[in-house]
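Q: I'm writing up a methods section and want to include an example of the input and output format. Could you take the sequence below and give the corresponding predicted structure tokens, formatted cleanly so I can copy it straight into the document?
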Amino acid sequence: LYIIQCYAPTNDSNDDIKDQFYERLQSIIEKCPRKDLTILMGGLNVKVGIDNIGYEDIMGRHGLGERNGNEGRFANLCAFNKLVIGGTIFPHKHIHKDTWISSDHTTENQIDHICINKKF
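A: Here is the clean output for your methods example:
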């Protein structure tokens, strides 16, 4: 069992910083044997939304909101490593999807994720 806990740069961060983060994360994932259970989780600062076109193998249509700029890097990382984005596969009550709520309670996002090997 391999558990990778991480906190990704926000969507407002410089592209070079985000690229470096995902390159480092990829190098860590590559060290986990494919035959073992790997869980990637944390504050990934990614809104995957409900549109899973092109990513049907790694995500469902039960996310929250719309994709943001970080989604492409995250979805590509998950697809390349055959990691399924857990919170999108099955329907959940709206209140159970929120992982971040603004202080004035007007904005809700699902930016924390748990991903697991597709074979499990």
